[in-house]
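New to this. Please check this fold:
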Amino acid sequence: MKMSSLVIVIATALPILVFSTAIDAQTDLNKSSNKSRTDIVTKHTTGTFEVKATPLPAENGVGDPKIGRLSLDKKFSGGINGTSKGQMLGYQSDDKSKGGYVAIEQITGTLDGKKGSFALQHHGTMDGSDYVMNVYVVPGSGTGELAGIAGKLTIIMEKGAHSYDFEYTLPASK
């Protein structure tokens, strides 16, 4: 076979192979998407929590004095019944109404009667009276009956009290 004939064969076969592979991949994706839609149950729960934030000592040679580190101890009531332990890093600007934080906490107890634990990851900013907080379940952190959990927790602060609104998913029980 001449080189030009080989190029024509490859040029003709390659798009067919790519198209066929793409169809197979899309079929596999649709199968897994359909499965996940039928195996996931969305839930919603609310409640309150108390938080104790304790300043931790600065580490030598790490960060800036405007960056603080805190330990977190929380007690949850409502849909979440349990406690959490965690750590937070925060930055306070010279304008005390501006700053930001990141945190990770591990909650242990029950969620709507299901026993286990899971971790939450926080990312928040404050710009005057404008607060933005994003708190999500860390993928793969669920244990016990909470294995496979995913979701978003909204923190509500009113008159010095803390409450939460938690929308989450769990794999359907078998």
Helices lie at 3-39. The chain has a mean pLDDT of 82.
